[in-house]
User: Which sequence fits this backbone?
């Protein structure tokens, strides 16, 4: 089984020359490997400033790593030939956050769909192109006759975002990278769009990287999760383990802070304030130490390695130093790979096509 | 039952647009009780923010309040002269605005912004008095006193939002209207800000109206929850009832569309889209998306009525 997209010990820092101390490390020693023919969704979760978007841009080759490398089918994105890069551009598709910004308001929505078809010569004739586009739209629950020929402002945010998912689908990609695809969409449409994304992984048998700040949707659609804090992986592995029984103090804080839409579980009492702050920590050691209730002196010495607390979970925290460590670039070996199609959820073809304006 | 603090009756707001008039809030009727936290939830375009701003008469043209009464302290706010309304704002009914980053003056230190608000309400603000006030206000929202001498750009999003809460509470209002106070914040900070708001509310013995789209936040924060759809209040019930036994089909489907952290694969979108406000379907505005719709739903607009004790819904079927 070949590795498609791979990040090996990628670090990205911004700003600052040698003498400038203001430089920011957006992502630290990040590794991830997506294997072919494994239709699983990997969620990358973090708050603002955790390096999520930097990661997306690195994986798409829109940013060059400061250290480490990102490769596709074993070839470094930086040294790729033009031809290889063209293949990469087609096979790795992105769905971005803002369904308003990606459109040129002067073109009809057809434009974002027909350009890639022409550019990558996906269809032999105009009619073939049209039917390709229509199929892709139907796959995300849109009616082609109500979508094509319209201008972006005539569609709702949810429709626009579904068109973007359709565009990604159209190119028969091998990897999908979705950066906050539903954060600007209303709750009632979120499930539909994520359902389309989920269905796509199953139909096309491709891996998806789902980057989000929303743990609840990550839990719903992903098999594996990577929790980032200030650019570093704090906990990763099987989403069931990480979300249901978080081990890292940061993951615990994050999950405890989510306002759950139900009355069974209530928000914990006041939390988040450092109970036992270690001033000056974070510079060399664990980045969370200055907010961590369990911080100890060893936490500020060096960044904690990944401890394998379970077969399918790694935690970067010294509280688990009894467990064996795993080198960061082998992180993906702890992931679960079984695909579990779920009945009744977003995995099933969600929602009949939407009437545009009843 | 606790006495009412604020009574809203038939509040309607209309926006004039080039494409015709749009009624963004339509006949909103509810009461806010003493010490209560009331949530008003809805998706984008449901009219929740319009409703919130109209309570304080802060609707700007092309919008205007078309009809309705808002009773506070025995007076109908909608009929007060503007200068009296101006005195009541902040003093009796305060707003924590959406997006604190845009509502603070970027060239004024926090001290100056608080002073502005107090001065406008005739509170004397000598340097000593102001220091005293700030020394009292800022710790109550979990901010250091030093924050008083900082500019908004020196504060994080959560700190700015707390500064807004400090201003809102500065004259001990009876009602605080918080319009999506945490929509731009991370969950950890969001929880801290909501904890702050809860503490302030308890301190003042005020009532809070929380307006927002996040049903999770509502479940965790409010006592009673109203749900808006296409400009109308379609349900208002104790929050436990809304989540365990929702009355209106829209509420039911909205709750089913929320991803849970408990069980996997149980969230399902609502088919279709909300109708454009300038072209609402006849009868119940939700009928084109409602799986239970019958003929009557297409013809007749349902009114809000009490279906169970304290639980109200606008649906022919309940």
Assistant:
């Amino acid at each position: 089984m070949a590795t498609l997209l791979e990040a090996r010990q990628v670090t990205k820092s911004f700003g600052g020359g040698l003498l400038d101390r203001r430089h920011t490390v957006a992502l630290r020693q990040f590794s991830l490997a997506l294997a072919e023919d494994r239709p699983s969704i990997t969620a990358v979760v973090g708050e603002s400033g955790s390096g999520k978007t930097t990661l997306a841009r690195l994986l798409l080759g829109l940013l060059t790593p400061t250290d480490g490398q990102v490769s596709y089918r074993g070839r470094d994105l930086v040294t790729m030939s033009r031809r290889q890069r063209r293949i990469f551009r087609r096979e790795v598709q992105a769905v971005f956050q803002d369904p308003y910004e990606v459109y040129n308001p002067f073109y009809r929505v057809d434009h974002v769909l027909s350009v890639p078809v022409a550019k990558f010569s996906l269809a032999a004739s105009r009619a073939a192109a049209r039917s390709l586009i229509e199929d892709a739209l139907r796959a995300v629950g849109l009616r082609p006759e109500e979508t094509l020929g319209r201008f972006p402002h005539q569609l709702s945010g949810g429709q626009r975002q579904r068109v973007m998912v359709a565009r990604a689908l159209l190119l028969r990609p091998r990897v999908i990278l979705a950066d906050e695809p539903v954060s600007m969409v209303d709750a009632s449409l979120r499930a539909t769009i994520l359902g389309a994304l989920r269905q796509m992984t199953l139909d096309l048998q491709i891996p998806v990287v789902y980057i989000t700040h929303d743990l609840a949707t990550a839990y719903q659609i992903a098999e594996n999760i990577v929790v980032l804090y200030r650019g570093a992986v704090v906990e990763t592995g099987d989403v069931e383990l990480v979300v249901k029984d978080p081990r890292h103090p940061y993951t615990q804080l994050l999950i405890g802070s989510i306002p759950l839409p139900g009355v069974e579980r209530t928000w914990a009492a006041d939390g988040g304030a450092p109970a036992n702050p270690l001033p000056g920590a974070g510079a060399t050691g664990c980045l969370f130490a200055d907010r961590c209730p369990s911080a100890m002196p060893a936490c500020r010495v060096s960044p904690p390695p990944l401890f394998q607390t379970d077969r399918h979970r790694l935690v970067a925290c010294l509280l688990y130093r009894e467990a064996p460590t795993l080198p960061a670039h082998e992180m993906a070996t702890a992931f679960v790979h079984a695909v579990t199609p779920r009945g009744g959820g977003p995995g099933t073809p969600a929602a009949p096509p939407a009437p545009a304006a009843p | 039952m606790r006495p009412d603090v604020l009574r809203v009756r038939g509040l309607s707001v209309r926006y004039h647009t080039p494409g015709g008039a749009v009624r963004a809030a339509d006949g909103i009727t509810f009461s806010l009780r003493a010490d209560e936290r009331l949530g008003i939830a809805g998706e984008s375009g449901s009219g929740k923010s319009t409703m919130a701003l109209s309570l304080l008469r802060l609707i700007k043209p092309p919008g205007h309040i078309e009809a309705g009464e808002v009773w506070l302290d025995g007076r109908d706010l909608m009929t007060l002269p503007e200068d009296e309304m101006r005195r009541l704002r902040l003093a009796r009914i305060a707003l924590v605005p959406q997006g604190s980053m845009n509502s603070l003056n970027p060239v004024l230190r926090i001290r100056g912004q608080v002073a502005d608000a107090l001065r406008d309400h005739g509170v004397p603000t000598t340097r000593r008095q102001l220091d005293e006030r700030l020394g009292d206000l800022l710790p109550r929202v979990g901010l250091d006193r030093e924050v008083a001498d900082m500019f908004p750009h020196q504060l994080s999003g959560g700190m700015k939002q707390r500064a807004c809460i400090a201003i809102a509470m500065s004259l001990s209002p009876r009602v605080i209207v918080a319009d999506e106070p945490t929509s731009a914040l991370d969950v950890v900070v969001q929880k801290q800000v909501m904890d702050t708001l809860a503490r302030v509310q308890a301190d003042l013995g005020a009532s809070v109206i929380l307006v927002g789209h996040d049903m999770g936040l509502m479940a965790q924060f409010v006592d009673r929850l109203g749900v808006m759809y296409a400009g109308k209040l379609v349900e208002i019930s104790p929050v436990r009832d809304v989540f365990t036994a929702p009355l209106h089909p829209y509420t039911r489907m909205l709750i089913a569309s929320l991803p849970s952290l408990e069980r996997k694969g149980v969230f399902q979108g609502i088919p279709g889209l909300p109708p454009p406000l300038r072209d609402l379907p006849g009868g119940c505005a939700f009928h084109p998306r409602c799986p239970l719709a019958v003929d009557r739903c297409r013809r007749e607009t349902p009114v809000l009525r009490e279906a169970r004790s304290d639980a109200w819904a606008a649906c022919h079927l309940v």
